[in-house]
Protein: Ubiquitin carboxyl-terminal hydrolase
Organism: Xanthoceras sorbifolium
Amino acid sequence: MINPMDLLRSNLSRVRIPEPTNRIFKQECCISFDTPKSEGGLFIDLNSFLAYGKDCVGWNYEKTGDPVYLHIKQTRKLVPEDRPSKKPTLLAIGIEGGFDNSEVEYEETHSIVILPDYVTLPFPSVELPEKVRLAVDAILMAEGAERKEQVAAWTADTKLVSAYAMNLQQIDNGVIVPPSGWKCAKCDKRDNLWLNLTDGMMLCGRKNWDGTGGNNHAMEHYKETGYPLAVKLGTITADLEGAESAACSDVFSYPEDDAVLDPLLAQHLAFFGIDFSSLKKTEMTTAEREIDQNTNFDWNRIQESGQGVEPLFGPGYTGLVNLGNSCYLAATMQVVFSTRCFCSRYYMNQNLKLAFDTAPADPTVDLNMQLTKLAHGLLSGKYSVPALKKDDNANAVTATDTKQEGIPPRMFKSVIAASHPEFSSMRQQDALEFFLHFVDQVERAHAGKPELDPTKSFKFGIEDRFSCSSGKVAYNRRLDYILSLNIPLHEATNKEELAAFNILKAQKTSEGKDVSADEIVRPRVPLESCLATFSAPEEIHDFYSTALKAKTTAIKTTGLTSFPDYLVLHMRKFVMEAGWVPKKLDVYIDVPDIIDISHMRSRGLQPEEELLPEGPGDEVESNKPVANEEIVAQLVSMGFNYLHCQKAAINTSNSGVEEAMNWLLSHMDDPDIDAPLSQGAQCATVDQSKLDTLISFGFQEEIARKALKASGGDIEKATDWIFNNPDASAASDMDATTSSTAQTPADAGLTDGGGKYRLFGIVSHMGTSTQCGHYVAHIVKDGRWVIFNDDKVGASVNPPKEMGYLYFFERINS
């Protein structure tokens, strides 16, 4: 038998000494959630510096042939039983001199392991080859990639107070900034505008490397004047008191060349007529005071505090560790992996080895691998065990009754957020935006295999019908993953109680008293009323009728062309108030366990109906409504691109700012989002040479023609468009003049069935804004409601059905 040291020397060519730029994983397996504390410890590949658990390290050897590993094992540290308990000298927990934090302490051992026979050599040892000793020392001294990425995300959000903020000189030149309709003073740019805090000039930002962005007028103004600070219009929030709150707004210091904090931002804005501090004060004396008083109730109700929740462990009951403001991700993914489609795709039909074998060299950056890892972590039950804690006896370790360790979704978050600047930060995010981003990324990952795509179980078609005064009709179709519902407060079922409460509130206010939390009455609106509002007829002004060859008023009705396997309802609880300040509606939604939306199915073009004629391209841009400039201006003022805002207004039939914003957020990554609204004759007839090029790639002529139109004639973008729209066909243009009762190619591949649904999941939000607060999920598991509050999982006693932000329904198959 070969000597272990000789075996190691024969494999030195597969050992590398890590360089400062190498990512080193040493806290968690890249295929499973095993750690050094796990029974088999953790194996770090001394060639790739990736970490593997005991069950997975053999797969890596088979795939890569890398034989040499650093084995890290952490075992519980034994404490001498006769050691006296130390008296704390510091008001701190878990540090030397502080209080004992009751957490189990571990000691770490290391060894060198050579596969495939798991030959083991001790470390440290002077007998080991120098190359191995240097490699291991570098790994042990390095900060793990998992930790480094998390710290980097936190550090990226840290801003310093500008040296120019406290003594900023402002020029009284009579400038008053209006609440909307902003435009660069030196060009026609209406987005990416910056307000100079010295003289009130509104100018566009920097030009990006690809030609997008502004025209550098704000920067040029600084070079001419030396005025140091500017704030980006559209990022200003009402909460501007103090440096911490001012971090919400984008303030840039040109001499410091960095984003900074301006503790006096409210004062500096007020100089130019933007009186956000007084707006906040007014709000705090009215609705916000009620919300503040009722915050504790919200948190206790949604988290079921004091309800004696029974902890649950086992398959499907695994908690997710909060990585720092990651509850939006945890709540959403718990519900997503409670669906059959995602459970089948990433757990039942794909094991960890299969996902690893098909992954690239670095599985930590592969979405399929990390989704499979997350699915197995959540659903297998392997990690859903009670956490350990130290007992009063020195060496007694017991399982806690209420808490589990949970699994940290670090690698998944890193992959899913890689292309998104907000989700890759450590700030709180909107669960709705994350869900839409998530399904978009998964759908893109299945561009070549749409039959495996689990997100199609959420996708459905929406059809808008427009009837103009000519008696003719037009249809507009689109696809979506969520049904976003307005909340009609006038449909509240407890109007008498609300009236009595308002009288009580007025009386207490006149007496200088506050209304107590248990006295507050909230409107109760039935979910049926929210669904009815979605389908209700609506007047659309400035609708261009190709029959009348003039603008007129049309009646719009909306229905669904298909019913998905899973229906996600988004309650629009956040509305825009004066000054574009988001406010959360203080309302309850009465949601039944079973709903029937069969009446919401659209009928399509009827035999007795006549379509509006297609207008000549030069006379009218479209039979869709012209973009409402008020809606566009409001969206632009929030920092969105002007063209994108026009498309959002048109595609939501000028229904309102919220509707347009929701459309924008879910279509930001569309391949044709930057295509001009109307390209005239240039778009009507595509370049034949470009068309021939695409046809030579093997694409059908009509598909290629459509792709070139959608991408403005750019071959590369057209190719991307075809790959990102695998179901596209020449007949599937969802314009406002073509429709039929038959299923169009745009609807082909969508799941469909009856309209009866059963509620199975709720994502609730606590806090005054989607950008702060906390998210919790409640899910029906094994016939009972279960609460998933980060790493805490338990049987729900009283699920807060009336307080949901997102509701997940599963279709009942007859």
In short: The chain is about 30% helix and 20% strand.
